[in-house]
Amino acid sequence: MSNAVGAAARRVGALRAQVVDPASSSRQTPQEAPSARVGLVDWFFGASGIGGKRASFTVAVLGAAGGIGQTLSAFIKANPKVAELRLYDVAPVVRGVAADVSHVNTRAKVSGYVGDDELEACLRGCDLVIIPAGVPRKPGMSRDDLFGVNAGIVRTLCEGVAKTCPNAIVNIISNPVNSTVPIAAEVFKKHGCYDARKLLGVTHLDVMRAKTFVAAAKGFDDPTLVDVPVIGGHAGTTILPLLSQTTPRCSFTPEEVSALTNRIQNGGTEVVEAKGGAGSATLSMAAAAAEFADACLRGLSGESGIWACAYVESKATRAPFFATKVLLGRNGVERVAGTGTLSSYEKRALESMLPELEASIKKGINFLHS
Ligand code: NAI
Questions:
Q1: Which partner for 165 in 126, 209, 290, 314 could form a disulfide, CB atoms 3.0-4.6 Å apart?
Q2: Is the distance from the beta carbon of residue 123 to the nearest atom of ligand 1 less than 6 Å?
Q3: Does an H or E element contain 300, and which?
Q4: Type and span of the H or E element at 11
């Protein structure tokens, strides 16, 4: 699985070791000073990108002036696989966000686009379109409460994708993901350009939370080395961490399973409540979306063995969209994994979440046909 953020953390130690001692550096001319690798690209993604090759992709962030969008844009700017970064929002400040992000000393060219009239110019020639546009939750709200506003936003933006860059990979972040991904699929079907391999709901933050919380509970020093598949959807009990498939292998008491599952399912609500009405998860989500986007770009570049969890069209269960691990390649999703062997707790949790997930999917599909 892509591990750009984790790799960045591991690199911090190495970089510290390379920082020049001020006492000795003061005696050196700039030409003589050791060329410590302190570039943002190296810090975040490795000298030539995790696992290798530089490439020249055009990436758009729709909703780039928002809490997720701004931070995500800065992360994407640091990705050496990106040649062009297009930032779009209905809020005019996105031009300022683009100006700000453009000063980061990496090679991606950055431009800002505002409103409907500029959507097409933003999307033309894009390889990857990331959509965090829409309203976030406030305390007491469920993700489904956002449907009324965000469904229409996702529909409009996906219509733009269908008309302008129908072959792009699309990463949907806007909630409720369980419904917005089916909405996007229906838009693409209506325009005759639906390719299930290229539409992915971003559930990677649930995976990041699972790694973090399991590492803390089990005393693992480095959460990046922990793997916990998270399946189902991206809302409440439809988020199902498969603790029985955790690696490194470890055992959990029934109490631990219940407490960890509950915390992973409610990680988003934990942040919404902690922010007290000022928004939902933005910084961790931006890191998750950047890591997931990097996995998609690595797949597009032809790297092999890139697995990540995502909410996609699936036959893993009776729900037509479902999150499991997927193999990313040159055309997007090359393979959708099954659920693997489940514990009896996980089997029960899966059975009981499916009606809600199916209803959310139906709601998304019906939105396009009402
Ligand atoms: P935000 O309110 O800070 O930013 C949203 C941005 O979208 C704003 O800049 C706004 O102007 C823009 N926007 C609104 N309508 C638009 C349109 N038609 N076209 C383009 N841009 C438009 O919200 P935040 O915190 O960035 O969250 C964005 C979405 O991401 C929310 O729906 C939230 O629930 C979701 N989210 C998803 C997560 C996931 O795991 N998939 C995790 C956290 C949040």
A1: 126
A2: no
A3: helix 283-300
A4: helix 4-18
Please list, in sequence order, all residues whose beta carbon lies within 8 angstroms of the beta carbon of residue 8, skipping any fewer than 6 positions away. Answer: 43, 44, 45
Q: What's the pLDDT score for residue 46?
A: 56
Instruction: State how far the Cα of 151 lies from the Cα of 68, in Å rounded to an integer.
Output: 18
Q: Give the catalytic positions in this structure.
A: 234
Q: Is residue 112 helix, strand or coil?
A: strand
Supply 187's token pair.
């838009």
Compute, in angstroms, the gap from residue 255 CA to the centroid of ligand 1. 35
Cβ of 234 closer than 6 Å to ligand 1, yes or no, is: yes
Residue 3 CA to chain centroid, in angstroms?
12
- Mean pLDDT of the residues in the chain: 89
The residue contributing the CA closest to ligand 1 atom 25 is: 67
Closest CA to ligand 1's atom 33: 136
What would the mean pLDDT of 284-313 be, rounded to a whole number?
96
**For a pocket test of ligand 1, which of 173, 291, 311 has the largest count of ligand atoms closer than 8 A to its C-beta?**
173
What domains sit in the chain, N to C, each tagged with a CATH number? 26-41+203-359 (3.90.110.10), 48-202 (3.40.50.720)
Helix (H, G, I), strand (E, B) or coil at 184: helix
CB of 269 sitting under 6 A from ligand 1: no
CA max distance for the chain: 73
306-313 and 321-329 strand pairing: antiparallel
Is 0.70 surpassed by the pTM of this model?
yes
191: nearest Cα among 217, 168, 218: 168
- As a whole number of angstroms, the distance between CA 87 and CA 70 comes to 9
Neighbour count for residue 37 (Cβ, 10 Å): 14
Cα distance between the two ends of the chain: 39
**Residue 138: pLDDT band by 50, 70, 90 thresholds?**
confident
